[in-house]
Records
---
Amino acid sequence: MRALNQLAALLFLLLGAFMVQRAFVYKVFIEQIGTGPGFMPMLTGIGILILAVLLFLESRIEPRGLRPGFLPDGAGWRRIGGVVAALAAAIAGMNVLGFRVAIFLFVVVVMSLVGTHRLLVRLAVGLCVSVAVHWAFVNKLTVPLPAGMLGF
Amino acid sequence: MESFAFLLQGLGSALQPENLLFALLGSVLGTLVGVLPGVGPAAGTALLIPMTFVLPAVPAIIMLSAVYYGAMYGGTITSVLLNVPGEAASVVTCIEGHEMAKRGRAGPALAIAALGSFFGGMVATVCLVTVALPLTRAALRFGPPEFFALMCFGLSLVIGLAGKSLVKSLLVALLGLALSQVGMDPTIGLPRFTFGAPDLVGGMELVAMVMGLFGVGDLLVNLERPARSATQSKVGRLFPGRQDWRRSLPSIFRGTVIGTGLGLIPGVASAVPTFVSYVIEKRVAPEPPEHWGGGAIEGVAGPETANNAYVNAALIPLFSLGIPSSPTVALLMGAFMINGLIPGPFLFTEHPDVVWTVIASLFIGNVILVILNLPLVGLWVRVLSIPRGILFALILVFCIVGSYSLNNRLFDPVIMLLFGVVGYALRKLEFPLAPVALTLVLGPLMEKGLAQSMMLSRGDPSIFLTRPIALALLVLSVVVLVVSSLKTGVSDAVRQDSEV
């Protein structure tokens, strides 16, 4: 955990520094008004910088290495990575393939990654979910969903 | 008396068929959220907010409020029957409730939990009615410095009790504050942190970020391990016997006091009243020590009552002062703001019809929940037999389409996904998420309060020192953070995000 917390501290340090730098660009004080657009970013950035240093120092007393079971096993990483990739692909594909096709494929992939269902079950559930959700949102909640190049 | 007159008017409006329907729908969905492990009240509320865009303000908020307190009822069912807490506040119920179920007494456990929750919820709502107007009148005397200081105080309580590390809690609070600054600044309308992207000029959507942090992030954590099947106990005879009532009634009264009292304090996680109640019951109830851990009905009655009393009482700081006390209440506040209403003292003066209708609906919602939960227990448990693959796919589909529907653009699902990964990473590194949710909602209001205060004082920060209420609140904020940093022995079990 020590290394991970130190990495987190470094990332927060970079964020804090970035915010302070931008604060000066946005102007911290404006003479006629008082606090400018950069005032809150300045305060926030300085706060993050200080706390990032404290986090780094706090992490130095932590034991090295990770406790057993902290990270998922190979199958766990495959599930997590697969679902994230499937989400990204579904979002990217919605405008091209259309909502119904993208979500149908998404559901089939997620069920393949997470469960142990037969192909026919996955296809059937994917079809039902994509059609039902599309109907509910477009027809009942009047939310226009992407049609894609295929037109549906 | 004035409050009760307003309440009667609100009740008339809450009993309209449309509002009743959405109270019922919210109660059903809330119970479902409570039953399903992997979807906490915060994620459930975030998923449902986009669906309320087509609704008028009052039914939308009635429905989302019902989801909030309904989730607490739902969590009890799986705790008792499956030893699986649907949400963190139901963990305590697993200890005694599941033991009762193993002895064939699941029915009395569920019945006492439901009836105790009903009583606690109703009493807390009566407190809300009684206390809201006087508190609001006091808060109307607040100016921008007092509101800013009040928000700091509310945040300090959440941060102080949020996680094991105060530094991590403060860091994520500031992270939320930083994220809330993306978009147009409230002073002169200058775009900040937009990197030239038109999609960022209006800021990042709160609901998309919360869906990612709480919904997707939690789901990714659940994916680490393969699914485990839980052994279900039978419900059996539903109603408690005379001895069950004799032992439970004092616990229900105590739980009501504990839950209502703690609900008034912003920052107290929903698991805290349940643990406090359990500890007190063990000390006060006349049963011998060996009775505990073997199905003590007091250990169900007290905590479940405290839980629901807490949930209803936690709406008091929101309605009267505009201070959300937990991530889910922060989202409710977001829902108010999406509908053009700002929770706080001005809500009572500018929109009394809305606020009293919502408060009246809390009574109705509690009645609906006790009717829903007792006879339909078997149905709720069947929900858990939905395979994990289908359930997770459904939740993610709702995340995608819910975030898309916010502005009909793909940018928001991208934000949702990004924050899902961030939420997963924060969870793994033991950063609490409650402070992020609160600063995402309160950040713009805090900045506005600070800017207005500085304008009032022409840039002189001593305005916060010369106004006694603002000074007192800021000093209290510092005291809370200092005391919290001393780690006064609050159990790690309650220093957690109870609503995720």
---
Amino acid sequence: MHIDARHLENNSLIEGDICIVGAGAAGISIALDWINTPYKVILLEGGGLEYDSKVQQLYQGENSGQKYFPLMSSRWHSFGGTTALWGGYCTEYDTIDFKKRDWVQHSGWPISKIDLIPYYKKAGDNLDLFSDNFSLEHWQRKNNKLKNLPLDKDTIWNKIWQFSPPTRFAEKYKDKISNAKNIHLYTYANVTDIITNDDSSEVIEVTTKNHANKTHKVKAKHFILACSALQNARLLLASTSQNPKGLGNENDNVGRYFMEHIEIKSSELWMNSAFSMNLYLLNWGKTKARAEIAITAEMQRKYKLLNGTVSIKPLDKARFEESNIEHWNDEDPRNNTFTRSAWEKIKHKVSVYKESRVDHINQAYQLSIRIEQEPKVSSRITLDTERDTLGVPKSDLNWVLSANEKKSIRKIQEIIGQQIGKSGIGRIKLLDYLQDETNLSWPDYTSGGLHHMGTTRMHKDPKKGVVDANCKIHGIHNLFVAGSSCFTTSGAANPTLTLIALSLRLSDYLKNNFNS
Amino acid sequence: MKRRSFIKITGVLSISIVLPYTFSSCNSSLNLNDTLATPYELLEVISKDESIEIGNQYCKAIPKEAKIDTLISLLSKGNTRESLKKMITDDFNLGNTIIINGWVLAQTEARQCALLSILI
């Protein structure tokens, strides 16, 4: 059932068994999981079924740290959430990502990869992936043209990504959600406050508002915040009715440990003869799976490296591409697009470049790294003094990079360079910003992946995290968080598949513990 | 600009005949130095000019090796193209690498570039 909250009588009371705040990848995945259960599920979406610029403006905020994308366009504020924008990259997190690593401060999830394995397949189904098998051998058996570079397996491995079409949750799931008898979707229902009992141990209700000046209350037995890492933290910090520090924030962890993936071109691979790179190249709309070069856990331990993977693109095109941070700079997310329009911009430059060269440019590739960040207390979202049009304080993001992140990027290129050299197939050349080991500055084109993580991180100790191993906010027995804001570390992989798997795990936990 | 090229330096090296070494014959010393100062595999992906620049940078970074006799002594453990190739592979395998102008190089081939840069 779908109800537009602008058309409800003012001060309506909405009641259900569980209330999910946010209808993006996490919220919709949980709602789908509760269809045909005996429970009444309230699914609240702040936007409409389609883009609404007035609602999108509610995401405006400040960037006071490292150069970052406009906050307003870094997330999509309508039913389906940021699946309206995403590129479809899917892979699982690695076992090491969940472990305590003595060289990565604040690392160590309270769960392991094994805890998510049962949920990855279902997450992949939600995203229309071809297979739940991410092993290189599986994909090489399916297609013997997928040759891997002849590199030492104790040092390098080939991590497989699959590509969702990309699934747009609004298109795919709108009817299923709207037609489900026990799912009550309310659009234009922005949650602006969470009200608890006096000692903040239980959520009583949430308040919703919209630009039609309608205010409503929603009561439920359990509440799940699923409105993205920035908005989950923002809402908790802004809910100050019982506690001026916000909810779940006794230990000042809400909003902290904000992590992105640093995504940046890192080196060039020049090969001395033709080599089929089908395994590594991406043909939009056609490639089902491709590999990125990854460093083994043993090498990460040996050299105290952060986890990162390296993708490969033909250099003739890659040289002219803008980085995401240069390209994605409009506050209206509809104006920031990847793929086709970006290619149109550079097509002419590429053809002129190719004609002017006599060497083997077709055997040269750009390597770009996607690397995890160290969790940092100082990398955080806080509340601005300015408020949005519904009266909620805006966000201020202070994104922080570190020297260790740059050192890891450099060392990973060096390790790949050693392996490439050893194999005799060519040589690696680090880009300018990595050549001087003592230079810890970052180039202007340093980008993130629009992957927001960590602002309500998981930790068994409430002094070190916001949610426990079941994504429940410490100290509040019926308030949970779904999505990548729960991530303790960021891993090297795009987060969508894992955040959905984690959300489905939460969903299972709630089903099994509903009345406890 | 990087080109696939196999440089012929015999003619160039013949200009630098004045060497502190003595071999059984002048021709065999030239042939050996030809081999020692030619990073064949590297030259499949970079130009001669770039290899010389790498050599210059190597000599600046490690001045104690920036002498013809020192470099020849270090490189002569491999006195054929095949044995030098093995030294390079071993360097990469053992992590005996150096980064010059961004290139991740085996120590051996960086020394070859250095020798070339001095002899040119």
---
Amino acid sequence: MESSSPSRVLIADDEPVFRRVILFTLERRGLVVEAVNNGAAALARLRESAFDFVVTDLQMPMMNGLELIRQIRSTPALATLPLILCTGKGLELDTERLCQQFALTAVLHKPFSPQHLARLILNPHPIAERV
Amino acid sequence: MSAKRIFGSVASACSGLSLRVGAVFLGLTLLLALFAAIAPRLEAGPSRIPWLLAVAAATVSGFACLRVGRVPAKIEGELLRTGGDPQAWRTVRPLVGGGHVVEAWNVLIEQAHGRRETDTEHLPAATPDNQVALMARAMRSVAAGIAVTGDDFRITAANPPLAALLGRDDTADLKDQNLLELLAMAASPQTAGGDIASTDAAATDAAATDASAAGSPADGGSGADDEEDEAAVAAIRRLAGGANAVTVRLTCAAPPAGPDGASSLLPPPRNVWRISRTRLDGRDGDSQGFAWLIQDITQQTLATAARDQFLQTAAHELRTPLSNLRAYAEALSIEEGVSVEEQKEFCNIINDETTRLSRLVDHLLTVGQMEAGSMVVHQHIIEPARVIDEAVEYLRPQIAASQLTLHTDISPKLRLLRGDKDKIQATLINLIGNAVKYTPEGGHVWVRAAIHDDTLEIAVEDDGIGISPEDLPRVFEKFFRVDHDSVQGQRGNGLGLAFAREVARLHQGDITAESRVGEGSVFTLRLPAPDEPTTV
């Protein structure tokens, strides 16, 4: 990943209020951010242009976050794209398994700090070959 | 013979039986003597012999009877003496002598005395048979399956409810069947075969399976089925194990599809049983099999699952405004160089989210009551026209802000209602508020109220965006919100209509909805309004 040119981040979340603050936080740190409100739109966008990072909510209309992640990982061109899942689901979700199964950078539990999200995107730990 | 024994014989001889027999023959003898006396005088000598013979015969018969009746007389004497008194019964005596009757009597006495002595652990022999009979009746009628099996799990006794649970018509069908196998069949017919045989060896395996039962939510339906089958197998293993007392939950296999083979939209709920097995103690402390109690806890399980589902959804709903609050508050506190406009905007958003959160908390409390079936309906006398007016006034600011036109058509003949004024008002605010929220600027909202057939009908109509046919059946579900970008302003929390319908039903009424996408919706609240308001 080129560290000189700004990273392009795609946000998928159905809450406009939440999209606004995430955009705000990430853009002031030099990231180029686009936002969509459902998984299907996200997938379409990913097929049109290249992104360096995807942050997705879990519950969205038309295609939820989990399905989006599955589709991304089964697309050869996107198999190593860094992914972060955000969710309000809490401990009911087996996040450890999800991280391992889909090689996610992280699973963030709402409410989380947008600054923390920004840090994760800007300084990602290299993902070991888990596939 | 001692004086006591003479007295004893005389006493028994004077008992009822001998008296009766003796009396008969005495009477007979006297009769004969009388005849002899009043009959014409007979010559002395041979003509008197028949009379003498008759008298002699009568006397001899009398003594013979006394002799033969001696044993019954004694028995009667003992019985008369103890007089049916349980205390005196202890002093009843066996008889001395030979003959079948005496032997039988002595055996009877022995039995009576013998049983009494070894029965010390039971209650005093007041009515032991009544107790046993009552317990037997209770066993037949109790709302749970009860069975007694041997150590090999073969059924030696079962009550009718158990037969019903296992799908048999008669408890006789169950005799000598292996209860553990029957339970395994009920749980998962496919895996029933091999598991019972492998008990101890598999016990450690079972422990491992139980521990890893965390499961994966990502797998979906088939995963859940596999989990349940594994749980059933583990449960059967525990029942087969060596513990003295075991209680397990068993989920039964799904009931077969309907007669036409078509599957319904939702899978039918699987029955859940709670099975308790305890060791039956023998009289000498050794094991004599097991006592089983099987209860159908399907309803409780469903209710618990529904409650858990509700709590999970509620927690998730709460996290959404919370995450907004956190994000905006953090932005305000740590970000450098935030413009004044942005600061104001963020503060407004925080304000709005706080309001949203508090409305959600309020609604959750009411919904929690709804779930528990504990929502209380207070008793007031309600003037429908006034309640509608107050609801409309409450919403005036929003109506004005959206530049909507509100029309009211309230019949003058509305009757007084008995019900919970606050809840009905909240319901109306909800219905009218929805109409306002989902109608674009410049639109119209109508509120009509009239009495039809002893029913108060309040209809709220709008010409707003309407509800699609897919969403319409679901609008009254808890937490259900229509996915719509064009919804302006605050998104609701999906509880308003669920609450409204619950209130309507608690008043023995209902709410219905009709709608066309792009044309508008009509929500109608119907409440019984009899001439004489009765208690809700």
---
Amino acid sequence: MNALLTQFVTESRDLVEQSSSALLALEQSPDDATHLDALFRAVHTVKGASGLFEMPPFTQAVHSGEDVLDAVRMGEVPFTPDLADLLLEMLDHVSDWLSELESTEALAPGAETISSGLASRLRAHLDAPEPEVPVADAAPAAADDGNMLQEIVYQPQPHAFYSGDDPLRTVLTTPGLLRVDPIPPDNWTPDGDFDPFQAVLGFAALSDADADTLRAHYQYVEDQITLTAVPAPAEAAAPPAPEPDPEAEMACTIIASQRRLIAHDGSPVPVATRLTSAREVLSRISDASGQAELAQELRALDPTAEGTFDQLDALADRLTTVLTAPQPEPQAAPSAEPKPEPQAAPEPEPAPDSASGPAPAPQAEPDRTDPAPHKATAIRVDADRIDLLMNLAGELVVAKNALPYLARRAEETDNAKSLAREIKAQHDVINRIADELQGAVMRIRMVPVGTVLGRFNRLVRDLSRKLEKRIRLEISGEETEADKAVVEELADPMVHLIRNALDHGLEQPADRRAAGKPEEGVIQISAYQRDESVVIEISDDGRGIDVARVKEKALSRGLVDPQAAEAMSDDDALQLILLPGLSTKDQTTDLSGRGVGMDVVASLVRRLGGTISLQSTLGEGTKVRLTLPLSMAVQHLMMIEVDNGLYGVPIDAVIESQRRPTSAIHRHRNEEMILLRERMIPLLRLRSLFGCAPGPDAEEINVLVVDVDGNEVGLIVDRFHAGVDAIVKPMEGLLAGVDCYSGTALLGDGSVLLALNLSEVIACRWN
Amino acid sequence: MPLELTSDVALLRGHVDIAEAEDLMTWLTDGPGRPVDVADCPSAHTAILQLLLALRPQIIGAEGQNDWRALLTGPLATQLQA
């Protein structure tokens, strides 16, 4: 792709993000000029840069945004939540367009319409006496056949000359120019003396070029012109084309369908009945259109008489002709106000009258509140980290240079021992460098989680408006770093969790007041590092989870048996929520059409090799904790052997390994358990789970006790092997869907180790 | 010289740009009633046209012209393209 365009897309993406943050911050503190300035600057820069490329709809939309923001800066226009919505919508479209530009180097068709819609809605916020904004080009577009001309009214802004514009020249060079009339202002001296450098003279021009060509010609001053189609021949100041009457159109459609109805043969309904019904409809239309005479004639028809069909049809024809006759006078007055916008995108309105449940989001609108759609393929990296990498690469080169020398020595010497020592020493050096290199590269991939967390400001804002709840989002620990891939994968589960908190967790303001809580609900997201993991906590001060109900539902769905339920602590019972098939809400409130179950979140997190746990107090709030590996690469694995196959188990999960006599196994229904250090640990025979033939009967079993999501499980394996540090690569393609393995690793001898994802393995057992 | 100001008349020649507007305005207000000659001036900046329309001095040489000068006395109608 064109290098300039690539740069534009990257930079504009950044600017759009900056704009969004500034916009949201501005909403929180409307009097803070720094946010407004930052917002204006960012939008202004995007507009300017876009002018380098051929993308008028993009520039037009952003330009309108800039104009509105300028007016806000001057104090001419108030910054309302509606305006904020509109600006956010503009930014969303700009993001879409940037993606389109990135993949196809052009804007998708329909950008023009979207842009005009945005521009007109944005300009509606401006107070200045605006010339009427052209709404739909649809009608004149078909009229390049010489029947339609374009009238351009160009009213330059007072500062036009200072911008380097020469309106006269622009008008005189208009393509297809037929006529120009100067439009003198009502007052040549608005500020006392005549200022020759203030542009007050307007122009009206007539052209036979098409609207698109004219738009392109006037693209730099699009906000100062209006374009109207006029029928030829062009007299001075031809009136704008009369607006089609939507009612008359509808009436004609109905009449046409009635005519089809009565003409249709082979209908089971007898002719007379059809004629009666059609006559009724047509006479009502006549009444409504003020065609009393026709109505009378229609009513006089006898449906059972001969020839009525023809008469009815003829009357219908006359009615149509009357309705489609041109209106006696053009609707000049009503068109002075800005007309309602074309269907660019329905605005999400909070439903004022819905007492129960939030209004469903309009289906046509793509999910704007989803912060996770775009996965960037470029990373920002600290220059220091690259320098470190360079140094290590240099050291590696030096280290490898020692090897040819060692090889020569090996050929010459007889002293194997001393040679072995030297090789070992060199290996140590290379080992150290490899480790450091590994670390350095990992650090390059580390990005602050703030990049993902920051996007939720927008999500919370939009959702809280939609649900009519007052909600504050507090984020801490944004600098906490984790692997880029982990951070990106985080967005999806977090969106689910935040939606849940907003929808189910936080109560309506009235309920909160009744419960003695502050009306404004709080959602806290905090991130920190703990050992080899990054922990993200999402807590709310909402209504909390009713553990009793959870247990009840789980029992009734057969997801847990009564004894286990009895024995469970409240904390454990909370985890039941993560089971598929459990939803304590009887009807799913549809925030976005997605089924948002906690089990979905749990499996997403498990797939990343992480864990999820819940804490909740009824009436006070809920906290969800996600623990994810810092990096998805190097793992410390313990190797186990099952039926001659080697598998890796994360060392962090291993509690202990034991050999026990087979007789120590307790059987309870179909489950096997063993007593270890005064705890009953369920056993899992990996051979049978993996579908291998059962091993030879043995006196003893090898049990690897592991911790899976807070539960202890004993894995029965054939043999234990050593631990190994391996780079686990997730599997791709067809094997990517196999959840039981977190990936594969290459061992020193070239063989492949399958790394087990314990949570999934255990989950398999219950299926 | 695009703008030549004498004591009797202001001569506009070639293309008169916005830079000349101020001088022209001063000349026009200093001695109202003196004519402006545009016979040799097929092109000018909007500011010049604007100035002349605002102060309405006597204009010489604008008749029958098919460019900006036509706007000094009315509309400009070019030939209709076939």
